[in-house]
Amino acid sequence: MKQTFLLILFFSTFYVISQEKYPKDYFRNPLNIPTVLAGTFGELRSNHFHSGVDIKTQGKEGLKIYAAADGYISRIKVAQYGFGKALYITHPNGFTTVYAHLSKYAEKIEKYVKSVQYKKERYATGNLFFKKDKFPVKKGEIIAFSGDTGSSGGPHLHYEIRNTKTEHIINPLIFGLKPKDSKPPTFQSLKVYPLNSNSRINNQNKSFLLTLKNTEKGKYVANKVSASGLIGLGVSVFDRLNEALNKNGIFSLEMFVNGKRFYHHDVETFSFSESKFINLHIDYQHYKKYKRRYQKTYKETKNKLSTYKNLINNGKLNIKDGLNYNIEIIAKDFKGNKSSIKIPIIGKKSNSIFAKPKDTTIYKIIATKFQKFKKENVTVAFPKNTFYDDLFLDFKVQNGIVKIHTPTIPLDKNYTLTFDVSKYSETEKQQLYIANVEYPKYPRYQYTRKKDSTFYTTTKNLGKYSLVTDNQKPKVSVLYFKDNQWISKRKTIKVKISDMGSGIKNYRATIDGEWVLMEFNHKKRILTYNFSDKKLVGSKHIFKIVVSDNVGNTNSVSTTFFKKQVN
Fold first, then answer.
1. Phi-psi region at 539: left, alpha or beta (left = phi > 0; alpha = psi -120 to 50)
2. Residue 410 buriedness (CB in 10 A; 0-12 / 13-18 / 19+)
3. In terms of DSSP H, where are the helices of 50-95?
4. 110 within 8 A of 96, measured Cβ to Cβ
5. What is the pTM of this model?
6. Among candidates 183, 170, 320, which has minimal Cα distance to 245?
7. Among 294, 292, 299, residue whose Cα is nearest residue 195
8. 283 near 296, Cβ under 8 Å?
9. Tens place of pLDDT for every residue, the chain, 567 residues?
10. What does 532-549 look like in DSSP terms, one character per residue?
11. Which long-range contacts does 372-378 make (Cβ < 8 Å, 24+ apart)?
12. Cα torsion for 512, 517, 522, 523, to the nearest 10°?
């Protein structure tokens, strides 16, 4: 009797713990509108997996954002890019919720943040951390308003749930957020890859795109393939939810070989530190060339993602002569809607011989070693394990442009690119910067550190680079009023700024000599000052703004305006 009681107690406790792992009714919807997603958790993004869900805000800014549960505001950060205006709430159940791309905070929070900005005389606040008693919040309390700040592609709320202790991010849909979804994922295309020099696919040692036939809803069939040796597969797939046209990410991907599961990954949770391995998870070369991502159904050796589950042979298929293989790849969204591809593969030995390409450069990269190469006035230095694999580097300098291999190979960490600039005058050096010139008409500024005779930058991108001159000052224009004009009815001052060279680095605005906060919408290139920030004394005022680019070219505009004070 006692043993039976203990057994029941054990299983009851286990059930409670498993239920409490991700409590489904603990968090409320952070918006008071139906949940429609513009982006899903774990979605494939540039160099990272999406760490939250993007909730549509009906194309508008200023919707009320509510605390998902009781807790306290533990962190606030205002940045020009990234999350823009963000807020973090720590909850007593071990989780933290994150709200990003906000337009502004609730009144008492906004007042505090602006006091910090005015004290520091800058827009970006850095991380502001708080103890429990500073900003406690209740579930359903208004904490902020939705917006489009930071690196946002349009108005929405980026919403995350993290494990407070580990900072691992967890799929918010697991906690009960429920967008409508009755649509299965859509397979766009399928690729098959030879994984070594002895592999053959349709009698060739190269990757193939396979034609897919959509036989019915959620069902696809690929053309028959003949192969031998070690091969892998990859799929281009997306998911659409109800009430939205966005091509979102899937939740899980599986591959079965003759009924046995060889590959499985899902996006329940992951850490920020592993997100970079997305570039090994996808066919990076194809993405860089054609802007379409293929998720591999096999795991590369250096890939340390934790999202893979019980792989057999890392998902790689060893095709033997005379055997038939029935492959099925299944993609699911979080709701469980699924689509599948069936791929018939025939094991057929090939006698074709392909000559191994000869190494064509003298610059050998040993991935596990530090490497440093110099040519003319350019030096490149690669820390050990910058590359995932050994290779021969294509390193050239021609007509002032340095070519560092091709941008189709992913890197694990930054390398250093250095230019000797001793031949330039001090004036010339002042206006020079290092740029990525993969697209020559649109040189892209690289953060350039300047010493007396050398300029250097660090980057994770291979490709073409050059020294570029910028001798043009930024353009600055005050909008909607002229010098010496009365603007009593205006609530804001707006200024448009732009720079065609190295790009805007900073700006400083004052009214009557005192610093004022201007928020920069870099997508529209407009700075905005809100008159509600501080009370002006008198009716005549002088507004001045100074704008500098990344090499120090500066432009300033000063204008006089008149404004009656409204009590």
1. alpha
2. buried
3. none
4. no
5. 0.93
6. 183
7. 299
8. yes
9. 444 443 333 333 333 333 468 888 899 999 999 999 999 999 999 999 999 999 999 999 999 999 999 999 999 999 999 999 999 999 999 999 999 999 999 999 999 999 999 999 999 999 999 999 999 999 999 999 999 999 999 999 999 999 999 999 999 999 999 999 999 999 999 999 999 999 999 999 999 999 999 999 999 999 999 999 999 999 999 999 999 999 999 999 999 999 999 999 999 999 999 999 999 999 999 999 999 999 999 999 999 999 999 999 999 999 999 999 999 999 999 999 999 999 999 999 887 776 666 667 899 999 999 999 999 999 999 999 999 999 999 999 999 999 999 999 999 999 999 999 999 999 999 999 999 999 999 999 999 999 999 999 999 999 999 999 999 999 999 999 999 999 999 999 999 999 999 999 999 999 999 999 999 999 999 999 999 999 999 999 999 999 999 999 999 999 999 998 766
10. GGSPPPSSEEEEEEEEEE
11. 375/402, 377/419, 377/420, 377/421, 377/423, 378/402, 378/417, 378/418, 378/419, 378/420
12. -100
In sequence order, what are the beta bridge partners of 208? 192
Backbone angles phi, psi at 113, to 5 degrees: -60, -45
Q: Which residues contact 507 (CB under 8 A, 6 or more apart)?
A: 497, 518, 520, 527, 545, 546, 547, 548
CA neighbours closer than 13 Å in the CB half-sphere of residue 512: 11
Which residues make Cβ contacts (< 8 Å) with residue 186, sequence separation at least 6? 237, 238, 239, 240, 339
Find the angle CA(514)-CA(520)-CA(526) to the nearest 5 degrees: 105
Which of these, 323, 294, 317, lies nearest to 210 by C-alpha position? 294
- Determine what percent of the chain falls in helix, strand and coil, rounding each to the nearest 5: 10, 45, 45
Query: Which one-letter amino acid corresponds to residue 184?
Result: P
Tokens encoding 48: 């990272």
Rounded to 5 degrees, φ, ψ at 426 are: -60, -40
